[in-house]
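Subject: DUF861 domain-containing protein

B.,
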Amino acid sequence: MSLSVTNSSIESHCFNLPEGEGAQLTLAPGRLLRGDPDRRDWPHFESSDGKVSSGIWSGTEGAWRIDFPAGQYEFFHVLSGTGAIVADDGTRKPFGPGDAVLVPQGFRGVFEVAEKVTKQYMFVQNV
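Prediction pasted inline below.
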């Protein structure tokens, strides 16, 4: 379910756990580093200009490259599972249930899932 923001009213949106099968996501060639992860998305909200989106994401064990361009940020809250964000310089930031993570613009590195992760996310782009 995707909702749009309008200037005429203020809306709040609550979302907790995924419902249904979700949309299966694929990785672009060359991004997958380890495993055969099943990655799924349950989009919940997207602003009318496409700059903000949120939803629930889940992925099984594996590792893949992530490269955030200038102006793109992700904030996520881990509902379950464990993993880590590993920067290209080797800095490792593990995460687990209850953790809040901010991936900054320009980040280059690896997203690792050790135990199936389910997270609530928000992307902000072109700000």
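The first strand starts at residue 23 and ends at 25.

T.
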